[in-house]
Known about the structure:
The chain is an alpha/beta fold. It is built from 11 helices and 25 strands.
Amino acid sequence: xxxxxxxxxxxxxxxxxxxxxxxxxxxxxxxxxxxxxxxxxxxxxxxxxxxxxxxxxxxxxxxxxxxxxxxxxxxxxxxxxxxxxxxxxxxxxxxxxxxxxxxxxxxxxxxxxxxxxxxxxxxxxxxxxxxxxxxxxxxxxxxxxxxxxxxxxxxxxxxxxxxxxxxxxxxxxxxxxxxxxxxxxxxxxxxxxxxxxxxxxxxxxxxxxxxxxxxxxxxxxxxxxxxxxxxxxxxxxxxxxxxxxxxxxxxxxxxxxxxxxxxxxxxxxxxxxxxxxxxxxxxxxxxxxxxxxxxxxxxxxxxxxxxxxxxxxxxxxxxxxxxxxxxxxxxxxxxxxxxxxxxxxxxxxxxxxxxxxxxxxxxxxxxxxxxxxxxxxxxxxxxxxxxxxxxxxxxxxxxxxxxxxxxxxxxxxxxxxxxxxxxxxxxxxxxxxxxx
Length: 436
Ligand SMILES: Cc1cc2nc3c(=O)[nH]c(=O)nc-3n(C[C@H](O)[C@H](O)[C@H](O)COP(=O)(O)OP(=O)(O)OC[C@H]3O[C@@H](n4cnc5c(N)ncnc54)[C@H](O)[C@@H]3O)c2cc1C
């Protein structure tokens, strides 16, 4: 993954995600008795699967259930009309691309025979095996997949919900209107102004994401508002990912512009002032990344099992440890040791779940040895990128995924070739999940 050579995006798609998927799926495919990608439905229906959430986990699961499962009725329920990616959204915040670069539709899935319903799931009735939609509709299922991403624990920070509702403060941690709102605030900020970003205690979605955002904001300021300052108020004791690489980028490209403050937990928001335990920090633009937990539907359906935040799963099937017949993917899960909350990982969870659900619907054993992988790219300038990668193998004794010793690693230094890889990775994974 980290030593491939640049090539045409289509070739990259086959190699990167074909290769990535193969780690998860070859054993699964062998168990399934499939020799290729079976898209043609034949014979009696294997069953009905409803997928809640058309993001990295849910869309991938819908596609792979259809592709590997053949005659499975797959319904995907997503509240938004199109998919807007969080990965690469910091690049948009930095002004290096427009929102259309990270937006894709659901037509590819529809063309494969996935029924795509635009709507909001309000409840899961696990006894009657039905999903309820806002507006009153119901969808019966044999198995349901829940990949709702995260929702925010705004109650932990005084004044935060009101500030977000009023629009004076942004989070930008769900891509779409928030990405654009943050960009507009940066454009409106005077040269010499202060951009402050707060980071919650880990775990949160995308460990390197906040530090990449700093780089992207800095790249814009360097060009358009060079007298401006960036303050990172991190509730954690240290930078959570790619520390040396980010610090080098701040020194090399944005000297004097970026200040990092550890152990700076946000207590309250008042206007664009961040109130910490011992001081108030006045900003011109305040970007708050709120504390996070599994999405609301996971909470309402009783899937949360750890710290009132995350959903425990059986890693062989991604089935909830709390509610039978319900499978949870992506950020909403209680992560295995050293497993990041990332889009790439949600995509891999989806393939484990799709293969397992097909087996369960057939009454056959699931793959006992899944392997998943992750690569996360971060832009440090408009062209230069760094990555972190890891491989995780199921450990039957401890019933969890564990990082494979010696696998993965970090870029030696930021470079432009990885800038091309990062954008190709994005195009490839969107193709993999949405069939576009
Ligand atoms: C700034 C930023 C940068 C990032 N960069 C990277 C990166 O470079 N690489 C990487 O791998 N990851 C990255 N991530 C992390 C990545 O975005 C998440 O880990 C990934 O989106 C998780 O996938 P998911 O399926 O769990 O959730 P999501 O992709 O968020 O999908 C959840 C979907 O469910 C829908 N939904 C929720 N509830 C309901 C409901 N009740 N009814 C109907 N629909 C519902 C939502 O609308 C959403 O579309 C980044 C994140 C951020 C914020």
